Amino acid sequence: MAVLRTAVLVGAVLLTGLTAGLLYSYACSVMPGLAQVGDRAAFEDAWVRWNLVRALAATAAFGCLTWGLALSGRHS
Fold first, then answer.
1. How far apart are the C-alpha atoms of 18 and 8, rounded to whole Å?
2. Taking the model in full, what pTM does it have?
3. In the predicted model, what is the mean pLDDT of residues 69-75?
4. How far, in Å, CA of 48 to CA of 42, rounded?
């Protein structure tokens, strides 16, 4: 039982250190870039682009569903 407790403690310490390093690298690499960009400029274009892609994909999926239902109705 003591070995398991020690292994869990060592694992927790290692994962905490890795998480702290990940957050520090994010703070050093991403946050300065975000600080230089305006609040809306960085995300608005990507958001609009993905909304357009999602709308086109939903329309295509609806068209395929309608076509499939029409074909199945014709054969039955």
1. 15
2. 0.46
3. 80
4. 11
Output the CA torsion 30→35→38→44 (10° steps): 20
- Count of helix runs (H) and strand runs (E) in the chain: 3, 0
Taking only the tens place, the pLDDT of each residue in 8-59 is 888 888 889 899 989 899 889 888 887 777 666 667 777 888 898 999 999 9
Contact 42, 34 (CB under 8 A): yes
Question: What is the rounded (10 degree) CA torsion for 57, 61, 62, 65?
Answer: 180
Residue 34, classed as helix, strand or coil, is helix
